[in-house]
Structures are given as structure tokens and as C-alpha cells.
Amino acid sequence: MDNQYADTFKEEAYELLTELENSLLELEDRPDDPELISRVFRAMHTIKGSGAMFGFDDIAAFTHQVETAFDQVRTGKLTVSRKMINLTLAARDQIKAMLDGAGKEGAVDAALTAQLIAGFKELLNEEQAAAPPAETAMPQPSPSGPPPVEDPVTFRIRFRPARNIFANGTNPVALLNELRQLGDCRIVAQMCDVPLLVELDPESCYIFWDVILTTTSGLDAIKDVFIFVEDDCEISIDTIDGGGNVDDEAYKKLGEILVERGDMAVEDIEAVLANQKRLGEMLVEKGMAAPSQIHSALLEQQQVKEVRQERRQKEERARAQEAGASIRVPAEKLDVLVNLVGELVTIQARMTQTAVGREDAELINIAEEVERLTAEMRDNVLNIRMLPIGTTFNKFKRLVRDLSGELGKEIEMATDGAETELDKTVIERLNDPMVHLIRNCIDHGIEKPEVREAAGKPRQGTVRLAAVHSGDRVLLTIEDDGAGLDREAILAKAVEKGMVAPSAELPDQEIYNLIFAPGFSTASKVTSVSGRGVGMDVVKRAIDALRGSIAINCRPGLGTVISIRIPLTMAIIESLLVQIGADRFLIPLSLVDECIELTRADVAASHGRNMATVRGHLVPYIPLRQKFSIAGTVPDIEQVVITEVNGTRVGFVVDRVIGEHQTVIKSLGRAFKNVEGMSGATILGDGSVALILDIPQLVRSVEEGDYLALSNEQSTLKKMI
Amino acid sequence: MGKVIMTADDSASIRQMVSFTLKQSGYEVLQAVDGRDALQQLGSRKVDMLITDLNMPNLDGIGLIKGARALPACKFIPIIMLTTESQDTKKQEGKAAGATGWIVKPFKPEQLLAVVKKVLG
Amino acid sequence: MSVPAITETTQYLTFKLGEEVFALDVAKVREILDFTTVTKVPQTPDYMRGVINLRGSVVPVLDLRLKFGMSATEKTVNTCVIVVEMVVEEEAMVLGVLADSVQEVIDLEPEQIEPAPRIGTTINTEFIMGMGKHNELFLIILDMDRVFSEGEKEAIVKTEREAVVNE
Fold first, then answer.
1. Residues 556-595, chain A, touching B (beta carbon < 8 A)
2. Which segment of A72-81, A529-538, A645-654 scores lowest on mean pLDDT?
3. At residue A544, does pLDDT exceed 90?
4. β-pair type (A461-470, A473-480)
5. Smallest Cβ distance to A177: which of B91, B107, B121?
6. Nearest CA of chain B to the CA of A58: how many Å?
7. How far is the alpha carbon of C47 from chain A, nearest alpha carbon, in Å?
8. Which of A41-55, A243-257, A343-357, A477-491 has the lowest mean pLDDT?
9. Which of A218, A385, B24, C67 lies 20 to 30 Å from A206, alpha-carbon distance?
10. Which of 566-605 (A) contact C at CB < 8 A?
């Protein structure tokens, strides 16, 4: 900061010194001219004040002496003498020398400085009138930096501004807001002094405020808030809960509080308490207290109670931790537990089914209860394994920092949704792929600072990691504002590897996603059998193993976005059991919006367009029987299960909807790695296998299928022409 | 709409520093070289806050504060005076004239911003 | 003339697909089940008949007849599911294969095994580890690892071909 303004100050100071010289010379002829005296004083004052601001402390200290002397002259305690003029002129020269030599060691004759100072002191002593009153240092309002965090203390603050406080520009609300910054605050405005409208002076302040503040910042921080107004206003600050007494959650009674505040007299309270109603109500009823007074006192009670409660809970937790109430558990043990819960869920479903089949009311009740407990157990067990992804994000901050430094790039990492929880295993298995992807961003995505500047972008690039729950999945995005992908290069390489025909016309999105295709990776010799090696295909494999999906998109020159969708849990989900023909399928319940009927008439009415109208909106549907080539006759009335994925509503046509089902997910295994539309399987209560539909994938495949069908049509047409 | 703050000071370097610091935080800044200049500008332009030095030629800080308070548009705006440590008596004078608060010179940019936030809200 | 890869006397499980007799290294066979129901997984090749519930695990079932170009396996009282375990790319894989009937477990010495003929079978010789002679009958010793890996690769090639076809 100093350097920025130093030059301006120097310029200003030189000017002032020149003026000063002139003024002093004139002053010699007219030693009583108040204007000249003022001018000289001001020059000194400014040089001193500004000097101190901008780092010229020696000048400021020296000038202070001269200023003091002229202050005395100004107030008539000292008269201008020839001696003084000489001294001041010499001082002026010395200041100039200091300016000239600023920053250079030994440029100024220190002895001379001392001599001059002595000279001024002498002057002051000679003409001593009353010794200048010891000036009390003015308190400097300081920016409230975070003080060391102590235990929260609760204060009761009554802020009663002077009636004319507006006249000096004070805004009480600003002060209350400042209090709010310090912590948990409950404020009640007391209006009892506000007169009737006819008598009210709009430029006066009649309101005072009762504030209950729980803060870790300490009493001084509170006093600081009122630093400008403490002389003119009534401010009382009382500690009402000091942080020490944990045992007694019960706080003062309402009556005590009112008496303490001076709002009520003890006798009045007692008199009213003689009746049996609640004190507060009665006081108000009798017109002895304003509702707002009661309200505020009750708030105080409540706040302190809450603070104490929380404090006690925190201490219990701390004690529990110390006592070792948290245990480290090997992940394998948890896995066993999860498996067992899975088995339990399956057999419990069978029990329910059997109970219903037997039509035994008592048994059904028991089965329901078991179902409820099993669900709770399932949730709790799965929860044990959930961790916020934030810790993983934080690890990457270091990676970004180090790597960008190495590569000579300026990159910042931002995160969103660090609190999003995922299964521990999933997080662990995501680590390596994410490291690889982030490295890619930094290495290939974000350009060097010079390049970015030339392109009109900020020098610093940003890598943004975000995580958010979406239905039964977590959506992870890695976004950078770099150069994006090189479409042509990717296409060329794909053609070279025989993955794509040279004349193929693929939409950009598909081209970008080619980098995930097996065999695309260029780095080193990746053998087709072992599949080891760096590369996007390894990333994709890892994501696939998690039953997730990964896609990449970019805007050339603007940035790239990698989206990874992972199922929340690898174990158990709630689904909707549906039936088509003799086969049963499951749709994750979190994606299901509603079910509607589809009659033959409806189908006919849509003219083969597979659209249904739901409350005035068109919803496309996928005829699963057709898509899955399931044999059998189509029932007259079918059901459309309408799902919502990322804001898009798509329906799935089934024969009937059986009901909700707690689904233990079984992987379909490698054999079905490339199968579209299924995200897993489960074993139903009767022992048969039902498949779990991968709704997002089905939606996508149909979208692409439409595209392919369209282009097929077009090429067929072309051949015909 | 951003808030408009006027700084009145005969020292160009102080004006520059105050102006720059406030502008960086999104405020619009008007500069006046002394009390008279300030009052003249205040006659035609509404400001949300005034920061004034106490020692200025033509019309000093106290005079400016009194004059500003007499203008209807400035009657209730926060006015902060810039003082040096040895002017405790000036503090009283300033308050009597209608100043809202003060900042002691020398001050750092953060201190300036903290006071502005405090009184402007 | 023996097959270089086969160096020891090994036990094999023999089974029939149609009229042909096949053999599998017993070490790879986990168990044999009756063929009751199988749940078809939509959008999979015909030879992937579906999945079954094997004591809580979901196990895929291959129709070898279809894989070898014959007609689909029909469900009869003799039809079985042979559950085999293989190692593919360092991962253990369990899957079932349909057999019209299961015969017996026999011993074959390396001398009794010959390399697969280039011609004369309708089956892709990649899958064949060798031809065994037993009691005057020739049986085809299957290399299950290859059978499956081929399937995988085929699937990949299939999707790629689809991508290319749509120009």
C-alpha cells in the first residue's frame, strides 16, 4: 500500500514545503496573521498525518514537534518569534532532506534532526503556559477480526439510544446488524415509549432494544459495536450465562428476568403470582407490562436454555469420544454386515409375502413390524458406510496446487457439495479415476496463463469439483474453464484405430465420448488382456465397476465438463416392482413420479408417437414390451410408470405395477457388462430373479435410437433416390 | 445502486487512498479539497456518507459538518471525521457539530472499510 | 500327437449337446443344476439365455448350442445347467452353461488327446482345447476361458459395428 500512494504523498509534501517556506517568510513580516499561522499549522499537520499513513514515519515523528509548537501559536499560547521562524525554516529544510533521501540510509543528518527537536522543545518550555493537558488517546474503532474462539457466553444487552440520535447520522439498525454478526441473536424492539402519532416527532428515536446475544467474541467485541454512541446512549450489557454452569438447564424465571431488567418491581410480580395463571399473561392483562417486554424476557429464557442444552450435548459427545465411544471398524466387517442385512431383507420380503398368502392377520402384523425394523436396520447399516465426499475433494486441492505449479499454470480449485455423502467404498474407488481426470484437466485442459490472457480469459484457470444427489445416484462433475477438447484430433485418432469409419458423421458429443472407448488410449502399450495402463479407458472401467456412467462434453475454447453418475449405494434400494408378460422388473423408486393408465384407445390416439398427455403436458413413453422383445399378448390396459431424470419426464409402459419392493442389488456380472438398460438384478421373495432397470440409460438409448433411426431413414432414403 | 461516499481532505494523497480503497469495495467516491468545495458539491449531489478531515483551508471539518447537517439531504447521513491522535477535544467538537463517528490517522484500509460498514450498514 | 498345453492326466466331465459329446476340465466345474427357470435379460444376444438364482447369487447362463450354431436348447427332463468357474482377466467368473444331458466323469491321459482338426466340426476351433478319445468315441474338450472371452469380444465388436454402420 505504501508504495502506491508514496509518490502522491511526496509530490504533495514538496508542494506543501514550498508553500510553507513562503508562508513562513511572510509570517516573519506579519507574525500575528491568523490565516498565515493556520496555513503553516495545516501544512505541518498534513505532512505529519499523511506521512504516517504512507510509511514516512520519521518525517511524521519529526514534523509532530513542529506541529505542536504551531498549535500553541494557534491557540495563542505562543507568539511567533524570529527564533521560531528560523527554527521552522531549518526544520522545513530538514523535512525536505528527509523526503529527498527517503529510503536511503544515512541520507539525513540525524544529529541535526535531534538538534532541531531540542530547539522546539526549548521554545515550548520557554513560553510555557499551562502544560498541555494530557491528551487521552482516542479509541480507534478497529475492524472486528476473528478473536480467539472462547466458549459461547450469553449477554443481555439493553440499547436505549438518545432521543436525538438520528441527528448525528447514527443508524441504530446498522448497530443491531453488527451485533447479529457476533453470534446468535434475539432482538426485541420495545415500543413502550413511542408516543401517539400526534405527538410523535419523526426525527426522534423513541424505540429501545433488548438483545439476547450468544457469542464467542467476548464482551469487548460488543462494546466495540457501540463505540461511537456510548456517550450518548444508555447501554447496559449483562452476562446472563457464563458458559460455566452446565448442570442446570433451567434458567431464571420470567419474573426474575423482568425484575433484573428493572421492568417490574418484585412486589408487583409477587402480587400477580398470587393468582394461578401464567405470569406473563397476567402481567399483560393487567396492563402492567407490555407484551413486547414479556416477549423479550421469554426469548431470553429460551435462548439461554437452548445454549445450555447445546453445551451439555456437546460435552456429552466429547466425553463419549474420550471414553472411546467411537470404534474403528475394518471395512470388511461392515461388508459382512451389509450382506447379512441384504439377506435379511430378502427373506423378510418372502415372509411378508407368505403371511399375506396365508391371510393370517396376526402373522401379517408381525411381518409388517419386522419389515419396519428391517428397513430401519438397513438404513442405519448403509449409513454407517456413508462419508461426505469433502475429504476427497480436499485431497485434490493439494494435487491441483502442486501440479499447476509444476506445469507453470495458475489454477484454482473450487468445490460444490462437499457435504454430499457416498458409500465409503465408492469414494475409495473413485479416488484414482478422479485423480486421473483432474490431472488431465490441468495438463491438457487449462492453458498457460499467457495463452489464456491472449484469449481474453483470466490468467487463473478454475477446476470445479461438484457433487450432488440426483435420485438414487450421485452426480459428480469435474469442470474446467480451459480449452476444451480437440474434436478433430479425437476423430482422426478414432479413424486411425478403425473405431470409426472415415466418412462417419457423428455428433460432437459422441466424438468427445470416444476417448472413453476401449482401445482409444494412446499411452504406452496397453495389452488387451491385462488392460493395465493409464488412460481414459481405465477410468471408464473403474466407473463401470461402480455401476456408474461417465460422459464428457465441452465448449471449444471455453471449457470441459466431465459428468460421472454413480449409484448411491451398491447394496439396497427401494424400487417399484412391475410386470411385463411373465417377467418382472424393478424401477428405482427415487426416480418414479407417478403411474397412469394406458388404454388401447390412448395408444391409438397418439398415432404411434408414444406420447401420453398428463395434466396437459406431453410425456414420451417407452414401450418396454416392444423394446425388450417380450412375447405374449398385450393387455388391454397397460400402466405407464412416469419417471423423472434430471428434470426430464419419461414414461415406461408395463403390464402392471405390483408394488414397492426393498431391493437387494445383485450385480449381473461381467457377462452383462455391455448390456444396456439393466443396472443389476435381485432375487424376489419367491426365489426368482428380477432385473433392475437402468432408467437413465434407457432414456438415453432411446434418444440416441431415435437419432439413429432418423439417420437410418435418411440413408435409406438416399439409397432409394 | 451503489452507495456514494464523499471524501473531503486537503491532502491529495489521503483523498487518493480513501478513494481507491472505497472504490475497490464497490462504492462510488466523490472528492472535495476542502469544506467549501464539499458543501458546494453537496448542494447539488446526494451522497450516502461523508468522510472529512478536520483541518482544511477555506472551511474546516467542523464547519463542513455543521453545514452538511443543515442541508436536508444530509441531515441524517453518517459523517465520519478523520482525526489525529492528539485531538481528543476535537472529537467532542465534532460530535457536537453532528459527526457520527471518527477514524484516527494513521489508519489502514481495512479500518476505513470497517467503519464504513459499521455506519452505513 | 498330443496337445502341448495338456501335460497331465486330468478328469473331465462329459456332456451332450445334441449328438456331439463335449468335455470340461472337472476342476472348473462347480456344480450341476437342473434347468428350471431362467430370467432372460433383454437386449442380449440369443446365446445369453439369462440369469438364475444360485443360492442368492445372480449367475448368467449361456446356451452353448446357440453359441455353436445349433438350435436353441430345449427344456427337457435331462437338461442341466453346468456351473463353471473361470478366471478371465484375473477376475473369477461364475457362469452356467446349458447341456442337453450330463454323462459322466472320465480320466483322460495326455496321449489320448489330439489337437483340434482344422476342418470337420461346425464349431469355432478357438474354443477347442483338443479332441479326446474315449471308448472309441471322440469328444470335444472345450476351453471355457476362450468360449467366454470370445463372447465378450464379440459383444464389443458388435456394438462397434453398429456405430460404424450408421454413417
1. none
2. A529-538
3. no
4. antiparallel
5. B121
6. 14
7. 12
8. A243-257
9. A218
10. 583
Average of per-residue pLDDT values in chain C: 79
d(CA C58, CA A424) in angstroms, rounded, equals: 24
Question: Which chains neighbour A (Cβ–Cβ under 8 Å, 3 or more pairs)?
Answer: B, C
pLDDT digits (tens, 9 = 90+) for A126-173: 654 434 444 444 456 555 544 555 677 888 899 999 998 998 899 999
In A, which residues are within 8 Å of C94 by CB distance?
669
CB pairs under 8 A between A and C: 100
Q: Would the pLDDT of A631 be above 90? A: no
CB-based contact C39 A683, cutoff 8 Å? no
- A96/A20 Cα distance (integer angstroms): 11
Give the burial string for A123-156 (b: 16+ CB within 10 Å, else e). Answer: bbeeeeeeeeeeeeebeebeebeeeeeeebbbbb
What does the CA dihedral A327, A329, A333, A335 come to, rounded to 10 degrees? 110
Cell of A44: 505541518
Residue of chain B whose alpha carbon sits nearest to that of A179: B118
* Per-domain boundaries in chain B: 4-115
| A167 DSSP assignment | G
Residues of chain A contacting B58 with CB distance shorter than 8 Å: none
In terms of pLDDT, which residue wins out, A3 or A353? Answer: A353
DSSP collapsed to 3 states, A359-377 = CCHHHHHHHHHHHHHHHHH
Retrieve residue C129's grid coordinates.
482345447
Specify the CATH superfamily of domain B4-115: Response regulator (3.40.50.2300)
| Least confident window among A510-519, B67-76, C153-162 | C153-162
For residue A515, what is its C-alpha cell? 476417448
Tell if the CB–CB gap between A138 and B102 is shorter than 8 Å.
yes
Question: Which subunits count as partners of chain C given 3+ CB pairs below 8 Å?
Answer: A
**CA quadruple A250, A252, A255, A257: dihedral sign:** negative
Q: Does A668 touch chain C (CB under 8 A)?
A: yes
Q: Per residue in A409-423, pLDDT tens?
A: 888 888 888 888 888
